[in-house]
């Protein structure tokens, strides 16, 4: 019993410690070590591989997504106990994928080198790919993000996307388990493989996959810092509008972007004359202005989480397509709709904007917008990015208070810049408002939880990265081929032993 308790405690602690591998701590080298602890425990106790994988992942996702409690209890005002239980629901579901990966890894082969160098990284990667789209998907916390953008392995993102980075992390962890079990020759070969992987990825970071296009443009990124507890209050509405209008009036730039739901009411319900006032400011300063604001659908039957180009005739817009379940739409409302009577969660029934939306033409640039956690889904951004020179994300993470959510979200945006070779403009309510370079590095960053306008100069880019040409398919097919190879090899070995026996 003491040994079992020790192994379980080590597993839970290793999972919880993954918090420090991601932003804001960014200790990227921790992730292969912590994952190797899980693999080592499963190698020693293969009968408990599922439980070990589940415990590690449950601790990891609970630690990394503790900010869910902030949104449910502190902001949505759900009582503490139900909020705590609800906070555990997402990690409890997500942990199934690593648990199954561990289970199948130990069952596919008893040979450590096959188990941890082939089956394990392939299964872990496929699991994270599956959870990125199953039930609308939730890719946050994928181990590949821990390497963005400081790690040498970040150089793989432009070629294979975030799932390729995940595979490299899992392979590195598996190698740490196998190394002590190999003879000297095998050990040297595996060390050479790791050096080639990490060194080659580092060299790829210096490759520029896209090219400059047009002239640099000046951009003003607004950060209003409106607390979520006040954001939708009618008493604060006038203050919010005045704050952002003053920001617009104080700026001179080619383009200005205001964050998600900067104006917390429908476009059609704005105070009379406000749109024309903003348009006059834009015309006088020759400044394009894009503002995050809800708007009704064209048929009036629904509403959209949109970014509207106020400075353009006809008010063209981008509307969020990948909505947040339980936040922006209610799945199975006939079963769980009742819980919303206990929460303060406005606009929880958005309509989808549609997958094929063209970039907005602003300040001579083609700007592909995405709203809030849409930039979690790399493959979905490939289409819009193909025709765009800039990416732009508008967000409101005030839902999660002063937590690590905004830092983690910034890291997701960095991955999207790496994958597409394009700068990412981020305008947020409370943070992290930033300009991200095409190589994933942060050029400018506004202090979180402050009211300010971040002024930057950005250069548009054109061209396609290898990842934009092929998407996730090569990594997924490659993982499937590895698993098939392991199964064929084991079948061949069993058949040979049967014949010789």
From TrEMBL:
Any one Gene Ontology biological process term? lipoprotein biosynthetic process
| Entry keyword set | Acyltransferase, Cell membrane, Lipoprotein, Membrane, Transferase, Transmembrane, Transmembrane helix
Q: What is this enzyme's EC?
A: 2.3.1.269
Q: Which PANTHER family match?
A: APOLIPOPROTEIN N-ACYLTRANSFERASE
The record's similarity note reads:
Belongs to the CN hydrolase family. Apolipoprotein N-acyltransferase subfamily.
Job of this protein: Catalyzes the phospholipid dependent N-acylation of the N-terminal cysteine of apolipoprotein, the last step in lipoprotein maturation.
Q: What is this protein called?
A: Apolipoprotein N-acyltransferase
Per the UniProt record, the source organism is Craterilacuibacter sinensis
């Amino acid at each position: 019993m003491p040994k079992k308790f020790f192994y379980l405690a080590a597993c839970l602690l290793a999972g919880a410690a993954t918090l420090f591998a991601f932003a804001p701590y960014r200790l990227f080298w921790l992730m292969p070590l912590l994952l190797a602890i899980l693999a080592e425990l499963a190698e020693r106790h293969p009968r408990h591989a599922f439980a070990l994988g589940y415990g590690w992942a449950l601790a990891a996702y609970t630690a990394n997504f503790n900010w869910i409690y902030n949104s449910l209890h502190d902001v949505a005002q759900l009582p503490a106990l139900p909020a705590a239980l609800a906070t555990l629901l997402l990690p409890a579901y997500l942990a199934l994928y690593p648990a199954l990966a561990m289970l199948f890894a130990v069952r596919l082969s008893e040979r450590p080198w096959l188990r941890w160098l082939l089956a394990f990284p392939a299964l872990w990667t496929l699991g994270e790919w599956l959870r990125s789209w199953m039930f609308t998907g939730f890719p946050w916390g994928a181990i590949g993000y821990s390497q963005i953008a400081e790690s040498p392995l970040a150089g793989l993102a432009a070629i294979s996307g975030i799932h390729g980075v995940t595979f490299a992390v899992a392979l590195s962890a598996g190698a740490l388990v196998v190394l002590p079990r190999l003879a000297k020759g095998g050990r040297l070969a595996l060390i050479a493989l790791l050096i080639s992987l990490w060194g080659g990825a580092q060299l790829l970071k210096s490759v520029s996959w896209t090219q400059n296009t047009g002239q640099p443009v000046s951009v003003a990124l607004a950060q209003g810092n409106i607390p979520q507890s006040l954001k939708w209050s009618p008493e604060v509405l006038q203050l919010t509008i005045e704050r952002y209008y003053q920001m617009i009036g104080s700026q001179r730039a080619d383009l200005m972007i205001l964050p998600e739901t900067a104006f917390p009411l429908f476009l059609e319900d704005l105070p009379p004359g406000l749109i024309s006032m903003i348009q006059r400011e834009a015309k006088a300063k020759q400044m394009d202005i894009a503002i995050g604001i809800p708007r009704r659908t064209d048929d009036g039957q629904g509403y959209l989480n949109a970014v509207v180009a106020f400075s353009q005739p006809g008010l063209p817009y981008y509307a969020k397509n990948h909505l947040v379940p339980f936040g922006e739409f209610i799945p199975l409302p006939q079963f769980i709709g009742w819980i919303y009577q206990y929460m303060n969660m406005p606009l929880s029934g958005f309509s989808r904007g549609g997958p094929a939306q063209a970039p907005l033409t602003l300040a001579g640039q083609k700007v592909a917008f995405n709203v809030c956690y849409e930039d979690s889904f790399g493959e979905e951004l490939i289409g819009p990015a193909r025709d765009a020179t800039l990416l732009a994300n508008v967000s409101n993470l005030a839902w999660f208070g002063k937590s690590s959510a905004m830092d983690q979200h910034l890291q997701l945006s960095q991955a999207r810049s790496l994958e597409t070779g394009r700068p990412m403009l981020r305008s947020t309510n409370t943070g992290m408002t930033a300009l991200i370079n095409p190589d994933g590095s942060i050029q400018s960053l506004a202090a979180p939880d402050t009211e300010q306008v971040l002024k930057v100069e950005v250069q548009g880019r054109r061209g396609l990265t290898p990842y934009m040409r092929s998407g996730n398919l090569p990594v997924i097919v490659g993982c499937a081929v590895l698993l098939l190879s392991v199964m064929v090899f084991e079948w061949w070995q069993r058949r040979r032993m049967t014949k010789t026996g």
